[in-house]
Amino acid sequence: MDFASLSVAFATIAGTIFIAELTDKDALLMLTLATRTSPIYIFAAGSVAFAITTTIIVSVGSALVRVIPVFWIRVAGGAIMLGYAFWTLAAIARGRAGEETSEAPGGRLFGRWGRRELAGFMTIVLSLALLDLAGDATELLTIVFVAEFKNLLLVFVSALSALVLASAVEAALGSSLRRFLSSRRIQYLSVVVFLVLGAAILLTSFA
Fold first, then answer.
1. 167 and 43 Cβ atoms separated by less than 8 Å
2. b/e map of 74-108 (b: 16 or more CB within 10 Å)?
3. CB-hemisphere CA count at 13 Å for 128?
4. pLDDT one-digit tens code per residue, 107-118
5. Which of 24, 43, 50, 114 sees the fewest Cβ atoms within 10 Å?
């Protein structure tokens, strides 16, 4: 492919996946998490998660389900979402509605990290990765583009660029929303989002 063809293909892949990601379920998770903690932290977690999932999807494509059945990916993703909901409910029950305790586990990108910060970051990365791999629109589109263009590097760079950009948008929107919501309302919003996502994923998995 010449430069003009590559540019058109890049714009097509990246534009399509960017739009799809903004309306996907993991976008809602990122938006909600960004109301509770640093948007840079959420952006970094999203970028890492999408780098992992894009590598997997582009590398193995539709054969992914032969290695890890989608059913188990969805069950794990749903369980993690419900775990987030119950963790937040426990924090509310303990009356921990302050600015610091309203954050998701982890919460800092820069500065000294301990086990809690690392565990929180990896939990978010795992949650986003599982949701992205659980048969969502961006995964299916990526597989389609791999089959259409037959250029793994082109699809990888295009898809990852779109997902990283979408992560930045979602983190920024969540941070802006935080200015208009109290700490307690953010916690309740998180509970609702996590419960709905978790229940929906598990119900559709077993249906």
1. yes
2. bbbbbebbbebbeebbebbeeeebeeeebbbbbbe
3. 31
4. 555 556 667 778
5. 114
Rounded to 10°, the helix 152-178/25-34 angle is 40
Alpha-carbon span 182 to 89, nearest angstrom: 16
Supply 169's token pair. 């948008």
- Which pair of tokens denotes residue 17? 């996946």
Condensed to tens digits (0 to 9), the pLDDT of residues 13-28 reads: 999 889 888 877 778 7
Tell me which of 153 and 205 has the higher pLDDT. 153
Nearest CA to 104 out of 51, 29, 179 is that of 29
**pLDDT, position 112:** 61
> What is the helix (H) or strand (E) element at residue 119, kind and residue range?
helix 115-133
Structure-block tokens of residue 13: 């892949």
Q: What residue has token string 């995964």?
A: 139
Q: What is the distance in angstroms between the CA of the first residue and the CA of the last residue of the chain?
A: 44
Alpha-carbon span 97 to 184, nearest angstrom = 6
- Both tokens of 62, joined, read 């539709």
DSSP readout, 131-169? HHHTT-HHHHHHHHHHHHH--HHHHHHHHHHHHHHHHHH
Whole-angstrom CA distances from 186 to 8, 78, 122, 124 are 41, 21, 22, 17
Task: Record the pTM.
Answer: 0.70
